[in-house]
Amino acid sequence: MSCFHIIGIILAAGAGRRMGGPKALLRFDDGTTLLERQTSLLIEGGCARVGIVIGAFAPEIRVSHPAIPARWIINERWEMGQFTSLQAGIAGSLSTDAGGAMVLPVDVAGISSDVVTAIIDTALRNPHLDAVVPEYGGRGGHPVYLSRSFCTLLAGLDPADSRSRLDTQLALLANAIRIPVNNPNVAKNINTQEEWETMKLSS
Fold this sequence. Notes:
The chain contains seven helices and eight strands; from the N terminus they run βαβαβαβαβββααβα. It is an alpha/beta fold.
């Protein structure tokens, strides 16, 4: 394995109010949960290890995944928004041997591991980059690679500031690129049961 490790961070702290419950616990027809699939996706795609950020429904999510190969990270400030989960994930999983992070909201589903691999390969070939974002049809999406230095910057921002959004900070970067991928799901997220059923049929 390269000494330039990339750590996966799954953001799964939200309450899933429109869905009617935690999205991490959504199940595929074979019984596996969305969180299990997302964890496997990042590992199969090339992440050295994975941290999962949870907040709302944390006990239920943990007890439903007693053997998941990932580190649990609690975001006590999850009600302040997803950016606090990103900050918690960076603080809880980006150890000294990590060169960067691959960030994936749990509800960006239906992505294949080759998308993750393509992003990682681009980051490894271009160590000067602060971000690598997948793009489909002109729209940027997830998972997104963030360099260690960019992660450090994000971790230090005030989450109450209106500029403390990942998309806002990505737009300010000089050393960021988008790579086209042949998967429309990178630019979608699952918010309702109808969207979930549609995604399952298409994946």
